[in-house]
Amino acid sequence: MDSQQSTQRVRLTAVDHTQPKLYVTLFASFILADIESGLQSLQAGVKTLFSEIDFLAGDVVTHPELEGRRNVRQIHPPIGALADVTLLQVKPHGSASTASAILESSPSFPDYAPFPALIAPTERWPVLRFQANLMRDGIVLAMSFNHAVFDATGATFVLQALSECCRAGGNGLKDTELLSAIQRNEISLRQEIYQTPPSNTTQGDVSNYYGPAAIVPDLQPEQWTGFMASLQATLSTRKFLFPASRVEQLKAICSDSIARASQQTTPTPSSNTVISALLITCIRRILAAPCADTETAHPATFVMPVNLRGRLKTPRFKTYLGNMITALRGSTPSTADVIDGASEGQQQLTHLARLSLQIHQGLESIDEQHIRETIAFLQAQDDWSAVNHKPADIILSSWRHLGVYDLDFGAPLGFVDDFEMDFGLVEPLCFFMPKRRVRGGGGGDVPWEVHITLKKGKFDALLADPLFGWILGGDALPAGDFAL
């Protein structure tokens, strides 16, 4: 197999530097009759994966100065022999724990993950590690990935490559199409981005989108456990299901409102767009609640990561592992505008429709030229620690497109039974989780699974919002409200 992989240092691109240096952990559960055989398949697959793409075993190191830029990150080979690096930890959890229930119950994820979201500042941060959690009825596989190296789509490609390695078993690397593409293209694509000529000329003012990374406390290693526990103690993450029928109904209502407000042909907002607009609207009310006048409070800012792979004309980027995202930024429309003859509910619907159109138009504006100019702008910066995406009042990220439930790990593991992620370090934060497979292969509408992180005590206000209650499948709103 033609491979570009080596033990040489791998440059992280300017786009990689827009992401924080923290860990996101993905969890995939497998219900198994023979747990030992499943573990052996994972162990063999992980060994093959790291031997074929060996920079995954490396560490991220920050160079104070490199090639004329400051604070540049690179992947260095691991210290010592690869055989001495624990790439897959194995952790039994006893007969009381089941893989079928553990992710649904949102356990204390640090017990199940190779790394917490933040680790004590050191010179070296591993790129990627796995942990096999042995349960009574199966295995929960955890993969902690360094966000400075991958985005969620890239990390899912790593999982897919692992599924190919597990499926191949000891029969050689047959039918490993993605693994082969990564070997052919990954390093050269990173070099292509890294060598983009710098330029400060862009279509819009993107300089306001970036700034220094958040300051990480200077704590001793033994203090980190307490710090992480206190940080997470203030936050809560809950899971919600939005019926597909309600999402389609909301799309139709927003489309109709947009069409009636315009004399021209208007675009139809996507499900992702209208759900985003609804969540921003509901969460904004929570943020504005302490104000004397909720509806005229200052607009809330929001940010949405956008996957750029499908927006580039270069086909090789479709399987790129590295960060290839930008952030769509915006703010909620003013609610001070009064529409003559409209009820309060109708006015709020109009604002919701306007917001969905605003998000749709923002997404449409991110084309190849915009992407290339943004990369060139990032390349022009002298200090790469100052190109992190700036925060916003509300963060939304869609993982609906990630095909984790379609990954076939081969016998005896099979397909992923359940999938979860652990990140909730900030709030308000909304994740649209991957679309589940339809059981039995038949038709049917798959609900939207949404995970929301808020400060503890805020969920009562969210659940009391009539619009949020309606999208969950609750009773119709009072007469005149939104005409739903």
From TrEMBL:
<dbReference type="InterPro" id="IPR023213">
    <property type="entry name" value="CAT-like_dom_sf"/>
</dbReference>
<dbReference type="InterPro" id="IPR050317">
    <property type="entry name" value="Plant_Fungal_Acyltransferase"/>
</dbReference>
<keyword id="KW-0012">Acyltransferase</keyword>
<protein>
    <recommendedName>
        <fullName>Acetyltransferase</fullName>
    </recommendedName>
</protein>
<dbReference type="GO" id="GO:0016747">
    <property type="term" value="F:acyltransferase activity, transferring groups other than amino-acyl groups"/>
</dbReference>
<dbReference type="Pfam" id="PF02458">
    <property type="entry name" value="Transferase"/>
</dbReference>
<keyword id="KW-0808">Transferase</keyword>
